[in-house]
Amino acid sequence: MDPLTTASAKQFHSLNMKGFEIKYRILKKTLFVEFHPTENLLDWLSVRLKYKKRNGVHTGYLKSYFACSKELQNVIKSNKDAICTVEVIGFGIGGAIAQVFCLFMADAIDQPIKIITYDSPTPFNQLKREEFDTLINIQEHYIFGFDLIGTLPIKLFGYAFPKNQRDYRIV
Predict the structure, then answer these.
(1) Cα separation of 130 and 162, whole Å?
(2) In terms of CB atoms within 10 Å, which end of the chain has fewer, N or C?
(3) 3-160 belongs to which homologous superfamily?
(4) β-pairing verdict for 85-91 and 30-37
């Protein structure tokens, strides 16, 4: 019996990576994957400041994805029959890594993928953003107000923001 389809599936399993943490579980045939940013400023900077693009993707976020990709592929592969849908959520730089995860896993996962990000920088140039939008039909991106530090420099380096990005407020 797969470890994620037993009673332990109600608990999140964790992967601690440099610069971010991943939590995942399978519940009611849905794989939930959460990408959380680190609380360590130096780890955050080491991921964030590698801003050059490789094939249209932010190098720091791409390297972060590759650091966890084999582990996540094994989770998906070993629980393939127990997964009907995949829901991904990302917070801060975890949301950027979550978008890279969805882009690269879309072909490997036969099930529909939904992504929600909160206050996440964009990891793609315009061409990669269009490819992502084509592959991932269900996506929501939320930001809290206007983030000058996260927005202006990123646009200057040629990154493209999601068209459906929405503002949220704490009331």
Answers:
(1) 9
(2) C
(3) Alpha/Beta hydrolase fold, catalytic domain (3.40.50.1820)
(4) parallel
More confident residue, 119 or 144: 119
Q: Which residue has the higher pLDDT, 1 or 11?
A: 11
Q: What burial letters (b/e) apply to 59-92, b meaning 16+ CB within 10 Å? A: bbbbbbbebbeeebeebbeebeebbeebbbbbbb
Can you tell me the distance from the alpha carbon of 163 to that of 171, in angstroms, rounded to the nearest whole number? 25
pTM of the model: 0.81
Average confidence (pLDDT) over 69-81: 90
| Length of the chain measured in residues | 171
Q: Where are the domains of the chain?
A: 3-160
Rounded CA gap, 157 and 121, in Å? 13
What pLDDT was estimated at residue 17? 80
Strands (DSSP E) contained in 3-63 are: 13-17, 20-27, 30-37, 53-54, 57-58
Count other C-beta atoms under 10 Å from residue 97's C-beta. Answer: 31
The pLDDT value recorded for residue 50 is 61
Res. 142 pLDDT band, cuts 50 70 90: confident
